[in-house]
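From the thread on structure requests for the teaching lab: each student submitted one protein with a one-line request. Submission from student K.M.:

"Model Polysaccharide biosynthesis protein GumN from Ciceribacter ferrooxidans, tokens only."
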Amino acid sequence: MLHCFQKFALRACLAAFVVMLLFDRNLAFAETDAPECAGRSILPRLVEDDPAGYEATIRAAAAVRNGKGVVWRIEKDGVKPSLLFGTTHLSDPRVLEVPSAVFEAFDHIDTLILELKEMTNPSDMALELFKYPQLYTLQDQRLDQLLPSEETELLATALRQRGLTMDLLARMRPWFIYMSMQSSQCEAKRRARGLNVLDQAVALKAVENGIELVGAETVQEQLESLADVSDRSMLNVLLDLFATPYSLADQSETLIQLYESSDTGMILALLTELAHDKVGLREFLEKLLVERNRRMADRALPYLQSGNVMIAVGALHLPGDDGLIELIRQQGFTVSVVE
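Reply posted by the TA:
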């Protein structure tokens, strides 16, 4: 059985980083809407356009440790079991249908560990963001001074197509622009009419049930992780986003379908396959996943030792040699897939 998280009010936050996560605090369990994005999975086209690349992606996905599953049980002798739930930062009704194990956990868990405790309060998160302008603005130069002329024009054209200008964003760090580009139009429309991203819905359900909320990191720490990616590497990742032949709606639809099939390994492999600058992508993933995974695992350990906890963080934090599943196992727990 699946159960659906939705909310009925939205309050947009001004910061692009938190646009993916921050919305108003009302939550209800309700019937899902029909999928409304017009995107198509890119996988069938990848088979046709680049069969060798597709086969390489399949092999890479199969090699990802713990690459199948978004719900995992955490167990240790003498300790009540806990749950690890890989979320996605989307509001599509299909991803708001959570597995039964997650839904039922709200009847008994003592603690919910999120990426950010402030997720339930958009205003607080926005205020935190604005405390650290040095992390998301360029201090001594403009974007068009970082790029050669042909890349500057590519970036300017891509921004114009999205109703933005180079002048408007010339002082913003590349990571900030990248994060602001992640939502497709249909995702933005869903949020505008009140649908909640999955992470937020989970957090608000915990509040409704009187469950303790714990942040695995702070807003400042998340910002610092993004800011630690070099501007050149982040620009390459950003230019890759604009250069791909697949629309944001298509990429979002692909992510949703892979998430529905719990195939986190394929999501990671596909990210690598589509990246032209694989060195820049590795730096990006090292800062955004690997280093943060270690922090999250360390912060979660005292709660896991007490048991009866659910950890709900982005699904890509789970798989891989340096993913949360392996890191939690290294702390003496048995971690087994539920679904």
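TA comment: The chain is about 50% helix and 15% strand. The chain has one domain: 2-137+172-337.
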